[in-house]
Write a structure and sequence with these properties.
Layout (H helix, E strand, L loop, with lengths): L4 E3 L5 H12 L3 H6 L3 H22 L1 E5 L4 E8 L11 H14 L4 H13 L6 E9 L8 H16 L3 E5 L2 H9 L3 E2 L4 E2 L5 E7 L8
Parallel strand pairs: 4-5
Antiparallel strand pairs: 1-2, 2-3, 3-4, 5-8, 6-8, 7-8
Helix pairs in contact: 1-3, 3-4, 4-5
Amino acid sequence: MGVAIRTAGEGDRELIVRLLDEAFQDDPVSGWVFPGAEDRRAKHPGLMAAFTDIVLATGRIDVMEDGSACALWLSVPADEGHGDPDGDAEDEGPAQVREAVDPDNERIEAIGRLTAAVHPTGRAHEYLWMIGVAPGRQGEGLGTALIEAVLDRCDREGLPAYLEASNARSRELYERLGFEPAGPALDLPDGPAMWPMWREPRPHRSA
């Protein structure tokens, strides 16, 4: 690629939020959460900021050195109870994000609950929450480079990986990287589909 990848820190927060906002403004799922274009322009950055803060605190954000792309990852342990009604902290998360971003928008909470309900349990894995590429840099392979850096580690450590594709183009990319459907598509109420995808680790070949 010729562009170095580094781990983002708190000082990169504004960059990450701006990247995600620009990358997902026209995404079908973002359009479902914020149906009105003016409302989306006003409130979408706040949702991306909430996601960024969560991952900065509990996961890892990889960013291209030139600020052109970023990937948000969470390491999920085997006993993590996504969608578990007894998991109080997990259950409160979507409501807390809604309250912080736009209390009147129930779809902010709904998207968190719906994706949590289909999230696989029982095996430790790496979760690609979001990946954003600056609109003017899409199609250059930046997203592939960011993902492959983590998938290489997954293969070395024998870890699977999981994500939800939010559009057909990204789903095709993930399929090329070895992801396969993890159950049926998640059809958002009166909205677009999301595709849960799972990747088993591949045998690691030493150089």
